[in-house]
């Protein structure tokens, strides 16, 4: 035996011995919270810029307190309010503009993904007086700028309470479940435009702009809930599926003093995804979209006569994204984000909508806009300038000059700034480093103080068999696609391993990112410890590599993304250590749609697939999301049907596990039922599981443990 062979065998023996001494991650540990990551409590910067507040809660005994801390020392300065016999337990809070009052949320219950009902109180900090807003649970209470009034929604109607007089006025009267909604959004706006409160106070509290949704003609959807009683019951709501009628949305202005409501004519826009008052109390900005979502207009509405002027119009051959980055400066010039040059960047416009200059530019994307420090002319943002799988924090002037790298450590950096932009708290993680929280000087990024890390978790994981994520790119179909691979900790290049691929693949998404592990990553580690290679490839249509790469899948969801996953699997199978006859793929939601299609259209490549809560036809999904990428089924029938897996069940050759929650209000279980029926009629055998009353997340109690145990067993038995 030569020296090199002896050395290799010795090192292999050391690795094998070292690996054998470490524990393997178990499913019970993953979903029992054994590897729970510690985070910073949600903090809000105070107006003085030197202090912040945190909501602290305990479960036993059940208590809550709103505490004030100093940035410089990170020490608690005082408790503003705490639950007691006089103050109920509260789960969230909002300050008035002058921070003299706090709105406290109690007895909160969810409606859909973002909407909530609750009993709310206003607490006066100086007098310690507590005022209950309503005896009935309400939605979206919002204090007026002077703190004297609070507007809210009850039973689809808008109300205003005068806190000094303890009187409440009902603003609208036509609200009714299933027909008219005032001041909050309907289901599809909440889910796809990501907001619930659809009313806004102007800067002096004299007017409230609000949206009214008429969902009378929106098709009705119902689903059975089985519960624990003798009879199940139906949950009913309005859900517009692709090509069907949406709510008719209109904009209205309420004059607080007179009580008059007036209508704002915007030439019948199809969608109104954002409204926001300017600093000028008489000017409201309104964003509108056409049904295809490829023509966005930004209006300035004069609240004195409700006249509307177009400030800006943006069009795109595919679609225009909606975000919350619009920021008005003191003179009502504004900062805007756009993909106009092919990448998402920041732009500055004057108050009349004339472009002053492009602030950021380059072949990379701005991923977060944090704010503008007018005193020092600094814009703060996050971007992928240091690599599309990484995130850095930067500052730059409105003229695009004086750019500074603030937090650019390789991995994912995110920032939360103090109100006056003196400090920021940086959240950092990478594939090898759990979340670390540090305080920095916003002028130069200099570290001020370490706040919290997850060293205890890191120490614990040192005792476990953890295989590194190996980041790389893979060239398929003419593109270098981001990829990671997890190999067994005792990987032997002379052996052959089964390949199990994970992906999501939805438009603008990203799974291959240099950040700390989530629960799926721990599951992938568990599988790697059982002898599987796990790989993830972000194909065409995913995000952060430019407009053209993201929007290439327009009108063909499930075509190019599937081609990329199949091609990637084939190319990986050429590697000597991968068994080309043992290739699987899995995904959730859009990823389940993808894994199903991959197993069918790539039936000579994939031997098994798992699909959790999948879309099986985009005809079944909602208007806003689906039509953004596909237009309507009436306009694009082949785009919908050629990539709908229940239209070609006869292609199934491998092993297939199909999972759904029966109470999924988002991707309806109808998708899975239609897939099941198609497979049955094609006489194709498969495995499936329905989780009663569980929503799109399929969780609660032991549900996640049961689901992942089922998926693990399926992988072991079929791959």
From TrEMBL:
One matching Pfam family: DPPIV_N
Designated name of the protein: DPP IV N-terminal domain-containing protein
Residue ranges of the TM segments: none
Domain Peptidase S9 prolyl oligopeptidase catalytic: 525-719
Keyword Zinc part of the UniProt annotation: no
Keyword Signal: no
InterPro entries linked: AB_hydrolase_fold (IPR029058), Pept_S9_AS (IPR002471), Peptidase_S9_cat (IPR001375), Peptidase_S9B_N (IPR002469), Serine_Prot_S9B/DPPIV (IPR050278)
Domain named Dipeptidylpeptidase IV N-terminal: residues: 96-435
Taxonomic source organism: Flagellimonas profundi
The entry's keywords: Hydrolase, Protease
């Amino acid at each position: 035996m030569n020296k090199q062979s002896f050395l290799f065998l010795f090192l292999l023996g050391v690795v094998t011995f070292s690996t054998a001494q470490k524990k393997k991650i178990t499913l019970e540990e993953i979903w029992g919270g054994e590897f729970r990551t510690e985070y910073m409590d949600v903090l809000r910067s105070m107006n003085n810029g030197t202090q912040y507040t945190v909501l602290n809660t305990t479960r036993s005994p059940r208590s809550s307190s709103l505490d004030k801390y100093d940035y410089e020392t990170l020490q608690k300065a005082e408790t503003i309010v705490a639950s007691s016999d006089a103050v109920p337990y509260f789960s969230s809070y909002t300050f008035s503009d002058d921070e003299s009052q706090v709105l406290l949320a109690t007895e909160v219950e969810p409606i859909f993904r973002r909407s909530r009902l609750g009993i709310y109180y206003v607490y006066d900090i100086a007098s310690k007086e507590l005022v209950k807003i309503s005896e009935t649970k309400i939605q979206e209470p919002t204090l007026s700028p002077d703190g004297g009034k609070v507007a809210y929604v009850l039973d689809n109607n808008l109300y205003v309470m005068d806190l000094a007089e303890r009187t409440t006025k009902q603003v609208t009267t036509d609200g009714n479940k299933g027909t008219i909604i005032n001041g909050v959004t309907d289901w599809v706006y909440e889910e796809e435009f990501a907001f619930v409160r659809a009313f806004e106070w102007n800067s002096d509290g004299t007017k409230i702009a609000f949206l009214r949704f008429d969902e009378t003609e929106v098709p009705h959807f119902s689903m059975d809930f089985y519960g624990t009683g003798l009879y199940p019951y139906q949950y009913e709501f309005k859900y517009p599926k692709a090509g069907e009628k949406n709510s008719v949305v209109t904009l209205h202005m309420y004059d607080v003093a007179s009580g008059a409501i007036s209508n704002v004519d915007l030439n019948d826009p199809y969608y109104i995804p954002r409204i926001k008052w300017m600093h000028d109390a008489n000017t409201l900005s309104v964003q509108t979209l056409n049904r295809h979502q490829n023509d966005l207009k930004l209006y300035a509405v004069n609240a004195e006569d409700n006249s509307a002027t177009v400030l800006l119009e943006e069009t795109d051959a595919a679609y225009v994204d909606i975000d919350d980055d619009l920021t008005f400066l003191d003179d009502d010039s504004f900062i805007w984000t756009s993909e106009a040059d092919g990448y998402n960047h920041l732009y500055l416009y004057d108050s009349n909508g004339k472009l002053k200059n492009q602030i950021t530019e380059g072949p990379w994307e701005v991923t977060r806009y944090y704010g503008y420090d007018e005193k020092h002319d600094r814009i703060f943002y996050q971007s992928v300038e240091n690599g599309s799988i990484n995130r850095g924090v930067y500052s730059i002037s409105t003229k695009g000059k004086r750019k500074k790298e603030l937090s650019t450590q390789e991995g994912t950096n995110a920032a939360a700034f103090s109100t006056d932009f003196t400090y920021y708290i940086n959240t950092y993680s990478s594939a090898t480093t759990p979340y670390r929280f540090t305080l920095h000087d916003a002028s130069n990024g200099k570290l001020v103080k370490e706040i919290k890390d997850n060293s205890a978790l890191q120490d614990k994981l040192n005792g476990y068999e953890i295989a590194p994520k190996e980041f790389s790119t893979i060239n398929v179909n003419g593109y270098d696609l981001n990829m990671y691979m997890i190999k067994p900790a005792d990987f032997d290049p002379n052996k052959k391993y089964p390949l199990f691929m994970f992906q999501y693949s939805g438009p603008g998404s990203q799974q291959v990112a240099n950040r700390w592990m989530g629960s799926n990553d721990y599951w992938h580690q568990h599988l790697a410890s059982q002898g599987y290679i796990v790989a993830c490839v972000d194909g065409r249509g995913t995000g952060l590599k430019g407009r053209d790469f993201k929007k290439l899948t327009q009108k063909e969801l499930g075509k190019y993304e599937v081609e990329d996953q199949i091609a990637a699997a084939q190319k990986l199978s050429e590697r000597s250590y991968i068994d080309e006859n043992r290739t699987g793929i899995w995904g959730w939601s859009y990823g389940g749609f993808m894994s199903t299609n991959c197993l069918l259209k790539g039936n000579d490549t994939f031997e098994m697939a798992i699909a959790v809560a999948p879309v099986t036809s985009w005809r079944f999904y909602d208007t806003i999301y689906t039509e953004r990428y596909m237009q309507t089924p009436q306009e694009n029938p082949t785009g919908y049907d050629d990539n709908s897996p229940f239209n070609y069940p006869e292609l199934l050759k491998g092993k297939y596990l199909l999972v759904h929650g029966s109470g999924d209000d988002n991707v309806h279980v109808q998708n899975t039922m239609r897939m099941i029926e198609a497979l049955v009629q094609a006489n194709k055998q498969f495995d499936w599981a329905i989780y009663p009353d569980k929503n799109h997340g399929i969780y609660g109690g032991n549900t996640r443990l049961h689901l992942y145990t089922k998926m693990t067993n399926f992988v072991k038995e079929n791959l």
